[in-house]
Amino acid sequence: MPDAKLIKSLEKKGFFLEFPDYKSNEELIIELLKEGNPRLNLALPSYLLENLDYNKITLSLNSKQKKELDKIILISEKIYKKEKIPNMLGNIIKQNKIKRTFSNNEFSNFYETFKETKLQINQTEQKAIEKQTQMRLKLDLNKSLNILFSPAKIRILSKIFNHEKLSNTELKYYYKSISNINKSVLNSSLQDYLRIIESTKKLIK
């Protein structure tokens, strides 16, 4: 498998490699713990939020890995309480009598990483929402343009919008056939009049 540095470099150039995904959340947690990398373990509180089979996970771990899991479960439960996030870890801790200690520094490291991850997820979701909104607005704009203007007129409007130079023929056509429509659409009295028409139409149905 290519190393992470190479994969990241390829992705920056738009080349994405396809890798098999994990079949379950438990499988991913097991693989993370088996890596034995404290930095990777910081990601676990984000995965422990989902329903998980504790016994299934621990059967695949050695004693050291299980101790690490137990510690992270206790840290995660404390994080969720602090963030007021509903979760099932309390039941897992009680049923399996999980008892481990962790330092304030360990908790801080996990907590800061969890907050950063949560922020990045929110930002990604917000960007996706904004992108969808822009696409809807563009579709609405195109629909309105197609109602008001012919394809030839839309091409000229698009050139002006994108700061492209018009030919003399296009410029004459703009002032002769497009400019008056634009002025009418922008007229505030016309807009108010049409709003009244639309609202009254609903009442007389």
What does this structure look like?
The protein is mainly α. It folds into two domains: 115 residues, no CATH class; 56 residues. 74% of the residues lie in helices and 0% in strands. The protein has eleven helices and no strands. The model has no long low-confidence stretch (mean pLDDT 85).
Gist of the model:
The chain has helices at residues 4-12, 25-35, 38-41, 44-47, 54-58, 63-83, 89-95, 104-148, 151-161, 168-186, 188-203. It is mostly helical. It starts with a helix and ends with a helix.
Question: Which structural class do you get from the secondary structure elements?
Answer: mainly alpha
Q: What is the string of helix and strand elements?
A: HHHHHHHHHHH
**Overall shape:** elongated
Quickly count the domains: 2
What Rg is obtained from the alpha carbons, in whole angstroms?
29 Å
Mean pLDDT: 85
Give the helix/strand layout:
Elements: H1 4-12, H2 25-35, H3 38-41, H4 44-47, H5 54-58, H6 63-83, H7 89-95, H8 104-148, H9 151-161, H10 168-186, H11 188-203
What characteristics describe this protein?
205 residues, mainly alpha, 2 domains, 74% helix, elongated
